[in-house]
Amino acid sequence: MSVIEGSNELAIVPVPNQPSTESTHFSTPGHPHQPHRDQSNSSRSFPIHKHINMPKSAVLFSENFRSSSKASINEILNLAQIPARAKYLGIPLFMHRKKKDSFVELKDRKFWWGYPQEKKHNLSLLSWESVCKPKSLGGLGIRTMESLNNSLLARLGWKMTSNQSLLWVDSLRSKHLKNGISFLNAASNPSSSWLWKGLLKNRKVVEKGACISISSGLNVDIWSSPWIPLMPNFRPIHNANLDVCPSLTVADLIIPGEQISTSRFANRPISDWISTILSPMASFGITKPEVRKFQLFVALVMDFIWRARNLLIHDGLQPSSSQAIVQVSSSLNHHITAWRELDLPTLWVPPVVGYVKGNFDVAVKGSFAVVAAVISDDMRNIISVATQKLNSTDVLQGEASVALLAARLVVSSGCDKLMLEGDALLVVLAINNPSLFSSWTFANCIYNISLVLSSFQSWNALKVSRCANFRALALTKWVTSNLVF
C-alpha cells in the first residue's frame, strides 16, 4: 500500500519469512506527527481499513522523501525499513524507472533455456512460443508474460476509466488526472512512473469497449470522445468535406432539463429526411458498403418508435431508452446475420455416397407451428417427407421435434448412415453435445434424438444456411400457405 504526497512516496510492503503473531487495525497517518482521525481534515490522506500483519511488514521511503519525516513515521509505524533494491525469491520487489535494469540479473542467468558460454551446443526440446500454446494445440498452456502483463494493465486501466472507488485509483487520479482530464485523454509524461506509462500504453485495449455514459456532457467532445453506443468506435462519423466545430461538446447539444437538442433537425421537411435515408453517404459520410446497414438501422428505429407509440396510447406503457437500445441492437444483429446467410453461395448438396440426408425446418403461423422433414439420397432423389402440426409456437421446441421426426423417418427407410441438416444453431449444437444443454423446452426431444441416433452406424448434424436448407423450408412454406391439416 502506498501513500503519495507530491513527489514523496511512502510504501508499506510485506516482508517474507517472518512469523505471524498478531494483526492490528491500522490507519495511514494523515500527518507525520499524529495518526489520521478524520479524512475531512486532510485532502492528502487516504484511510486504509485493512488488517496489516505488522511483523511481516516493512516501510520503504523513496529517494525524494523528506529526511525530517522518516524518524517520525518510523516511530509511529514501528516498522523495519526495507532497502530500495530488496528482492523476494530472486524477483525485485520494486521497479526502477528503467525496468530492464531491475531484471538484468535474471537475463544474465539465461533463466529458461540458457547454457554456459563455454558450451557450444545445447538441447532445447521446445521453444518458448510452443510451450505457451494452449494444451489443445500441443503446448503446455502457460501464458506469456507479455500477454498476462498487458491484460492486467488493461484491467487496471478499466478501473481508472470507470472511476471505481479504490484507494490506488484515487491516488493515481489525484496525481495524474487533474483539471477534469479523463484517463482516455491523459497525455504521457517522460517523468511519469513506469506503472503510469504502462497503463497509458495499454489504453488502446480499454478504448475498444469504453463508452461514456452522458451526464452533463461538459468534458465530452462530440467528435473525439466515445459516447454513442451504436456507432463504430462509439464515435460519430462526419463528412470530411463539411465544416465542423472542433470544440463542440455534448453539453452544447443539451438544453437544461431536456434531452439532447434536436432543434436543428426538427424543422426539416419529411422529403429531406427521406432523401437523407435513401442517400446517406453525402449527409453522414457513410461508406457505400455500410449504406444497407444504415438504412436497416433507421427502419428498425422507426418501427420501434411506432410500436412504442401504440403501447403508450393503447396500454399506457412507455419503453425506456435502455429497452430501445437493447431491442434495436438485437433486431439489427439478427437481420445482419440473416443477410450473411443469404449472401452465402452454398446451396443444397446431396449427401456422400451411402448416406441419406435429412433436412428439417419449422414455420410458426398464429397460435401453432408447422414442421417438415425431407429425406434425400445421394442421387438427389427425395425418398421420404413428413409434416406435422404442433400446438406450440416455441421455435426451439419445434426445431428439436422435427429433427427427431427426420431421424425416425431415416430409421424406417432402413438406412444406417445419416446426415442431419437444419438452420437452428442451438438445436444442432444440442444434438452434437446433449450434456451442454439443459433447457427444459426441448431437452426431452434432444434425449430421444440421441436414443434414435445411437442405432445408426454413422451420423452427423450440421448447421446450414437457409439457402442450403431450402428443401425443408419450401415444404413448410407450402404446407403453411395451403393449410393442409
Describe what this molecule looks like in 3D.
There is one protein chain. The protein has helices spanning 67-77, 99-102, 104-108, 128-131, 145-161, 167-176, 194-201, 203-207, 263-266, 270-278, 280-284, 291-315, 321-343, 395-413, 425-432, 443-453, 470-482, and strands at residues 2-5, 8-14, 24-26, 50-52, 57-61, 80-81, 87-88, 91-92, 356-365, 368-376, 382-390, 417-422, 458-463. The protein is an alpha/beta fold. The chain has five domains: 2-92, no CATH class; 99-116 and 124-142, no CATH class; 146-207, no CATH class; 292-340; 356-482, Nucleotidyltransferase, domain 5 (2-Layer Sandwich), CATH 3.30.420. The strands form four sheets. A five-stranded mixed beta sheet has the order 11-10-9-12-13, sandwiched between helices. Strand 7 (87-88) and strand 8 (91-92) form a beta hairpin. The radius of gyration is 33 Å and the shape is extended.
List the main descriptive attributes of the protein structure presented here.
5 domains, four-stranded mixed beta sheet, disordered N terminus, 13 strands, 485 residues
SSE topology sketch:
Blueprint: E1 2-5, E2 8-14, E3 24-26, E4 50-52, E5 57-61, H1 67-77, E6 80-81, E7 87-88, E8 91-92, H2 99-102, H3 104-108, H4 128-131, H5 145-161, H6 167-176, H7 194-201, H8 203-207, H9 263-266, H10 270-278, H11 280-284, H12 291-315, H13 321-343, E9 356-365, E10 368-376, E11 382-390, H14 395-413, E12 417-422, H15 425-432, H16 443-453, E13 458-463, H17 470-482
Parallel strand pairs: 5-6, 9-12, 12-13
Antiparallel strand pairs: 1-2, 2-5, 3-4, 7-8, 9-10, 10-11
Helix pairs in contact: 12-13, 14-16
